[in-house]
Amino acid sequence: MADVIDSMLDLMRRLPPTRTEENVQALVNICPDDADELLQSVDQPLQVMVDRATGREYLACDYNRDGESYRSPWSNEYDPPIDDGAVPSSKMRKIEIQANEAFDTYREMYYEGGVSSVFLWDPEDPSGGSNFAGVVVLKKTMTPTSVYEPAGSWDSIHVFETAERGRQAHYKLTSTVMLQLITRKGTEGEVKLPAEKKGLENSKRDGEVSLSGSMTRQSEQDWPLHDSSSHISNIGRMIEEMEIKMRNLLQEVYFGKTRDIVYDLRSVDDLEKARRQKELQKELVGSFTKRPPTESRKSG
Amino acid sequence: MDDSSMEANDRIRAAANFLLQSPPGEINDVLNDIRNIISDDDLLQEGIQPALREYNIEQFTVVDVPDTNHQSIISEAAREGDSLESEERFLDPRSKISFLFDHLSLEASDPVPFEPDETHEPYRSALEAASLSYLKAHFTDGVTSVFSPKDGSSRYVIQIVANKYNPTNFWAGRWRSEYIVDLTSNRVSGKMLINIHYYEQGNVQLATSHTVSFDIPPAVVSASPNTAASKILALIEGEEGKYQISLSDTYQEMGEKTFKGLRRALPLTRQKLDWDKVMGYKLGAELSGSKPAFPNS
Fold it and tell me: Is A188 exposed, middle or buried (0-12, 13-18, 19+ CB in 10 A)?
């Protein structure tokens, strides 16, 4: 039989992405022994926290967690406070500050709101030199102010590793996007057209459409190193490219596919009519191709 | 021991909760995952039955009706009123056969003919005939069942389900609709539910629910069962068609407005970021420290 963790991951790939947190929690309760591996393998929606020192919002995820506390990228402080929480080395922290500022600009340009955070960690092996790793997380939520306004959320998690090779660096990027779009429509929300008057008497309509998804992609690239900030701009370009690609995939391929499947289930056009039409056409074509021999027989 | 039995109950509850979230056509995959995770088949086999039953009834699971060449729908409306829970029987009004249903193997057994309610049967079978031809016109793999009123009411129930499972191409879909035709209030109230799962290198799901209700026009109320039934189905056809088209508009809106509101495809400048510049600004700001933002001017 397959590993329990494989079954958990298969299950998470099948169950609705909108209920990831609840389902991961249930799995953790059933198999506490596999909790760590599961939490490392399944990306969950990011939580927005407020930095107590600066009042700025940041994102909480497994990567800035120490016990029950989360580290803010702005003040470098843990919330709730802990004494010996893991923090990056001062050299790494300097790059982390720069990276947070750069991705804050990126966030504003693409998300026009939302929250971003970057967390870096020092190389585990000291002989690894300056090969560090990190995560860039972005989140935006649209909260409707009335029932018929659209709602939605975008969460992206980009984990990267760097490996310096002389004047170049090799980057490995794993990106996950979690997306949810909800639209509610009802009789009150509908635009009443005069042409609709001949419609049904006393009719009422109400509905909700929820489109949600999560996907993960990987990419590996080499980029030149010019100075200490090169890593950030290199990773920035890779993440930008990846987010563009994944956003496009979700909108054009994934969402488009779900719409096509609806049309596979039900046809707007009358299939019977189409079938009859086809048969009629076949008959017509048949009668044309049959005619010459019939005529030749007649004339002969 | 009390502690371990509590835990067993919790595990069954969690398993049942997973099962009820199964995308169309994937219940066996979900069940296999759960079996491996719970790793207690005896506990599961016994405990999961209510969830399987709930899933089948809720999802309008289709069953091959014994001794016929058609399928019928397992649902609350299809439950035979006075059957015992342990020997629960379901009705196929089309063949007038009742049967036992295995919620795991999805097979029917012990078919027994039943006598339909004579007063309702003409109207029911008229709705059924109209529903079958509606099905043929708009669904490729659809099944419909039409039920006579229960418990002295005058509420006929039309159910439709269409499934398409394509695991090789990582997708599955289900369309369910149900209409209550109430001949006392002369009103039709219905709902349409769509669930789509596309999981090729990802997990994308569409879940929609849409309710509709309308009065049955007086001319239809007074018509013969056959005429009334085809008029009612024509109205339903109109509603479902309109809904499907509005769904396309919703997709368009989501793509153009909601998606863009969350994350733009490109910045307002219509260009990707100039990362050297982004870094330059930040570096410049850092070097200048707390000095004013325009050090050179």
Answer: exposed
Provide the strand spans (E) within chain B.
62-64, 71-73, 89-92, 97-101, 108-113, 142-147, 155-166, 171-182, 187-198, 203-215
| Ranges of chain B with pLDDT below 70 | 1-6, 82-85, 281-297
CATH number of B1-57: 3.30.1140.60
Q: In the CATH hierarchy, which fold is given to the domain comprising B59-115?
A: Ribosomal protein S3 C-terminal domain (3.30.1140)
State whether residue A285 sits within 8 Å of chain B by CB: no
**Cα maximum dimension of chain B:** 96
Asked if B78 and B147 touch (Cβ cutoff 8 Å), the reply is: yes
CB A92 within 8 A of CB A104: no
Minimal-distance CA residue of chain B relative to A29: B11
pLDDT at A147 over 90: no
Are B1-57 and B121-257 in the same CATH fold?
Answer: no
Question: Are B17 and A208 within 8 A, CB to CB?
Answer: no
Q: What is the CATH number of domain A47-190+204-265?
A: 3.90.1150.210
Angle between helices B2-20 and A20-30 (to 10 degrees): 150
Percent of chain A surpassing pLDDT 70:
90
Max distance between CA atoms of chain A, in angstroms, equals 109
Q: Give, in words, the CATH class of B121-257.
A: alpha beta
State which residue of chain A sits closest to B217, comparing Cα positions: A201
What ipTM does this complex have? 0.90
Residue A5, classified by CB atoms within 10 Å of its CB into exposed (0-12), middle (13-18) or buried (19+), is middle
Residue type for position A106: Y
The stretch A272-285 carries a mean pLDDT of 87
Nearest to B15 by CA among B47, B54, B42, B59: B47
SS3 category, A63: helix
Among chain A residues, CA nearest to B269: A109
CB contact under 8 A, B259 and A111: no
The answer to whether the Cα torsion of B79, B80, B82, B85 is positive or negative is negative
pLDDT at A194: 47
Whether B206 and chain A come into contact, CB under 8 Å, resolves to: yes
Question: A-chain residues within 8 Å CB-CB of B282?
Answer: 98, 101-102, 105
Each domain of chain A, given as residue ranges in start order, spans: 1-42, 47-190+204-265
Q: What is the DSSP string of A9-28?
A: HHHHHHS-GGGHHHHHHHHH
Per-domain residue ranges of chain B: 1-57, 59-115, 121-257
Percentage helix, strand, coil, to 5, in chain B?
A: 45, 25, 30
Predicted confidence (pLDDT) per residue in A160-210, tens digit: 999 998 899 999 999 999 999 999 998 754 544 444 445 677 889 999 999
